[in-house]
Amino acid sequence: MLDDNMLNFDEERFVRIQSGAVALAATARPMIRGFLEAGVERIFFMGTGGVQLLTLPAIELAQRHSAFPVSACFPAQAVLAPPAGLDGKALAILPSLSGTTKESVALLAFLKARGVKTLSLTGHADTPLGQDADETFTNFAEDDTSSESFYLQTAILMLALLQETGAISNYDAITAELATLPALLVAAKAAYEPEAARLAAEIKDEDYHIFTGAGAVWPEAHYYGMCILEEMQWIRTRPVHAADFFHGTLELVEPGVSVFLFKGEDACRPLGDRVEAFARRYTDKLRVLDSADVALPGISDEVRALVSPVVLATLLERLSAHLEVLRDHPLTTRRYYKRVEY
């Protein structure tokens, strides 16, 4: 056991949830093959809110390796202004931790009426999304474990698509490495715990942060700023892609301005390097989280690049665990969430 000194962390639960996500690898290929044989020619990821951000690395993975159309849509917008091709030859993948998200439930009925094939990814089976989609994969998770779970599930689905369409031939090798990841993530959390505690104490009273990153880790920068600090801690953030950092946001950087830079291990890493070189000159509050600093024994460079957002998400959960205690603001506390009609 590695979690004795980790704040509010259940190692057994975490490993069970992330292993459950990786278990999708056993059925993903036949599931995707079945959709392709049924005439699917394009795929839309349609998640509501932050969970949609967690699908973006998988979408980019598919787009880099294949011309098979894979894209993202906002559910509430798709119902009002559906994109071309949202028809019987389309597969919509709907991630929803609760399985009851109102916009996604309304979208599912809309999609079924158009003949769109549907696959839901949920944390709870006995829910509208868990029961009414054409195919469902359910892996129980909660807020503190859902990021890694959805990153892994969506990556595995796109790896299955690439394998089934002939774009890659190493699906089995990649997913075998992914099977070792849950235990490695626990070790990564344990190693990061002292830094998480230090960083939480440093930023607990700060009320504004710029978050940036590129490639596979950009969605995690956006997600952590919007869904954790804004929604769960009521802290103002400015998520901006590292490719756009020098087209506006750089003018906000000065001493005292907090910049969080997330760095991954894919081809887009130089964009983060450029931001780092600039920010170090103009602010005393540059915070860099780099997946390359994390030991992942047995994980190849190819798979490290793939799981960079998973690694950063697992480190940031430790930061969140300390922040909620130091700020006396539980991550479950909301002002408006239950009062808004979605």
Question: Can you offer a commentary on this structure?
Answer:
- The protein has 342 residues and is an alpha/beta fold.
- The chain has two domains: 11-178, Rossmann fold, CATH 3.40.50.10490; 182-326, Glucose-6-phosphate isomerase like protein, domain 1 (Rossmann fold, 3-Layer(aba) Sandwich).
- It has helices at 11-22, 25-37, 50-53, 56-65, 75-80, 102-114, 128-132, 143-164, 171-178, 181-203, 218-233, 269-282, 301-326, and strands at residues 42-45, 70-72, 90-96, 117-122, 135-138, 208-213, 236-241, 258-263, 285-290.
- It has a five-stranded parallel beta sheet with strand order 2-1-3-4-5.
- The longest helix has 26 residues, at 301-326.
- The chain is globular.
- The N and C termini lie far apart (42 Å).
Quick recap of the structure?
This protein has 342 residues and is of the alpha/beta class. It is 50% helix and 14% strand.
